[in-house]
Amino acid sequence: MQSNFSEIFLGRKLQLWVLSAVAVAALVAANVVWLFPTLDELETSAYLLHRSIALDIKNQTSAFLNYNELALENAADVINQNGSAGKNTVYRLMKENRPFDSLALLDLDGRELIKNHRFLLTTSADLRDRSGDELFTTINRGEIYRSPVLVSGISEPITIIALPLRTESGFSAIVAEINLKFLLEVVRGINVGPLAGGGAAYVIDRDGYMVAHPNSSLVFGRSNLLARKIIEAALSGREADTRDRALAYKNESGENMLAVALPLELTGWAIVVEESRSAALSSSRRMLSVAVVSFGLEILLLALLIWNYFNLIRAATLFYTERNQREAILNSLSDGVIEYNDEPQIILMNPKAEELLGVKFKEIGSAVITPELFQQNAKFRGLVEIMYPALAPYASSTKDIPGAFRAKTMEIHTSSPELRLMVTMTHVIDQSGNVRGFLKILHDISRERLLGRLKSEFVSIAAHQLRTPLSAIKWTLKLLLEGDAGTLSSEQTDFLSKGYEINERMIKLVNDLLNAARIEEGRFGYEFQNINFDAFLENITKNYSDMARQKSMEVRFENKKGKTVVIYGDQERLALAVNNLLENAIKYTKAGGKVAVTLEQKGDYALISISDTGVGIPVSEQKRVFSKFFRASNVIRMETEGTGLGLFIVRNIIKRHGGDIYFTSKEGDGSNFTFTIPIKKELVPREEAPTLEEFLETI
């Protein structure tokens, strides 16, 4: 499956790169499709905005000129009807129209007959003869005269408008000098852009001079822009803008300008609104920047997708490799493995578990394993008994597995199929420490149990068969040593004594083997009764006084609280346990050492400690102290005799009484064995059973 996966995905890298190139091209095309039309629209919008500004200025300028021209026409009508009202009409018109700097009435020969100035006092010397001016020529043709823009004596732009009058009125024309500073206010009130950026709106007269500009110095300096083709086009009477590249120009700073020019037909002037292209199209530039950044991000995203795709392929390949490896490991295990969740639903079941329980994983599917499941299908009975041990014919109590986190083990006997299983239960924990599921590992112990039982039976039979002749040999040797068969020489006595000692050791070995076999079979046999435990321990300790004296050792007993401690136990079995501990303490302590036996009551338990200053137990061997046939390496070097069954028997006797035993030891400094015995009868187990811990050690 892994090779197929690699062929499907990893074998198509070239196609993936081609698809990536196509995707990049598609991204470029998509960006081009919307970007350039958008930029064109933004540029068009900028032109339309500038045109609307120019149109607004044009309308305001036309309205200003038309208003003042209309005022002149009304005055002309009055004078035409009554020439004698000319002087009063001039005064009234000056008063009502502030843009008028001066008003004059020309006689029929073109000389100023009446003149009024807003700021100057006029005398007869100030009256001019205009008969030779273009103004008078235009008037004589019956046309309205509109002059180019001029600069007044106070440096303000003005224009002259003259309207012809009927000869019956006695005047030939009414002439007005109109101050154009109003136009300065108009263009200054228009916000095209910062002056530093070249943004401005201005008015050009028909000769190319500036009439109004936000920068008044350009007006007073009589700047002429007729050289600009866009100005020339507008003055010729047509609307123009710099979208026509032939009309494009640069300002004094060398910046390309975006400009719109509208003709003012009334006067032949031009209205111009201009701004540097960089400022006017800043939104386009920002849009282009956004597009570039967006395109870059899209390419980056595509690259990340491709990179993640390759990583996904690698991760998937690794996943399938690891999954196949896990499946191979699980399939090769000699123990059954069941993984399940808290529903509980079976998530995984290896072939060995299927074989043991006689059910296939695919037959279970997503079914929730309930106690009633086997009633629907009898073949699920074994699985249900594993999941719910209380339903099994036999289920031991759970025991923690030393050194394994959250792992427990128990023995379960199933009814269908008939199996004896050692079931280990643990959690499935992820890297964050969260519980993701549960495991049950099934180890078939039917054969091990059978072998263990056969071994125990063999040992028991062999020990029984050996004990009878050994007992006969013992009594025979004893009779000979006591002289019942006649007087013995010293050499004969020495030989028989050695034979007697060896026979005693053989009898002890046989007894230890019998005791171990009975313990394993759960038939050691206990007779419980109330025991005065402090007197019991004191008597046993005194029995070792002679043995201790021979080694110049101190052996003492101490009841720490001095109170009588009564326990419920088997006196013979407890004596066997204490004797084993005391004998080891004395045997493996050098001459001059000390052995102490202490007793104290703690709650519902009697606490007994037997400490010595002996050879101690090596750290690397301490885990096996209570195993059968264990003897420490340093002890074997000291003394070759011993069965290695003593501490195994001690531990099982203490456990049968409902107590516990533990020790501390340091090689060369001695050991301290401590065990507890319950005082209350209720704390003693009701029945004897084979020990699970010892069995776990054997497998």
Automatic annotation (TrEMBL):
Keyword presence, Oxidoreductase: no
Domain PAS: 322-364
GO MF entries: phosphoprotein phosphatase activity; phosphorelay sensor kinase activity
Catalytic activity: ATP + protein L-histidine = ADP + protein N-phospho-L-histidine
Record-linked Pfam families: dCache_1 (PF02743), HATPase_c (PF02518), HisKA (PF00512), PAS_8 (PF13188)
Taxonomy, superkingdom: Bacteria
Compartments it resides in: Cell membrane
Membrane-traversing stretches: 14-36, 287-310
Enzyme class, first EC level, given as a word: transferase
GO cellular component: plasma membrane
EC number(s) from the headed UniProt entry: 2.7.13.3
Keywords: Cell membrane, Kinase, Membrane, Phosphoprotein, Transferase, Transmembrane, Transmembrane helix, Two-component regulatory system
Membrane topology: Multi-pass membrane protein
Histidine kinase domain boundaries: 461-681
Gene Ontology biological-process entries: cellular response to phosphate starvation
The protein's name: histidine kinase
Organism: Candidatus Giovannonibacteria bacterium RIFCSPHIGHO2_01_FULL_45_23
